[in-house]
Amino acid sequence: MDKNQYLNSEGLLELLESELLLNISKSGRIKRILKQVNSFLSEHPQNKKALTLKINCFYYLHKYNEALALCNTALTFHNDDIEILFKKVDILNALEKSEEAFAVLNHIASIDPDNPELKERIDAVRTVNEEIKRTYGSLSQILGPLNYKTTKLEYFVQILICLAMAFLIWQLFLIFTQT
Questions:
Q1: Cα(119)–Cα(116) distance, rounded to whole angstroms?
Q2: pTM over 0.70
Q3: Whole-number mean pLDDT of the chain?
Q4: Of 2, 13, 30, 87, which has the maximum CB count within 10 A?
Q5: How far is Cα 132 from Cα 40, in angstroms, rounded to an integer?
């Protein structure tokens, strides 16, 4: 087998997948793997293993929006593929989109209700959902009712505004107590 045949075979994808798992914390290595997977996908755009590998690269690089978009693309080629659907759940969970993750889990349950990973993934999404409620719950007492569509950045800005107002009130208090 010559080098070109090997580069176009499933063997390369296996090798890249192994390398990805060994280098999860090394973004430079993951980017090189991603480049090779992109090259493979240019010739085989519907290859499930290559699509899954690229999704995993984005996921490990914390590029969750890109991973989610690619997941949706992969699902157009591989309808109801459990592996890709579970990866979508992981990505939605990382994006703290619990409602959407539960919807995908319900879909998986309708396809394969006896899947051994299903309960584990449901528990993981529940944990993140509870953490979101716990984190934002105390803020909602200060900032008003929690709107789950509000982003962390919006809440951070609201907290900064509250701190600025508290500082202003403190300054006014100091001014009025000195006179």
A1: 7
A2: no
A3: 80
A4: 87
A5: 39
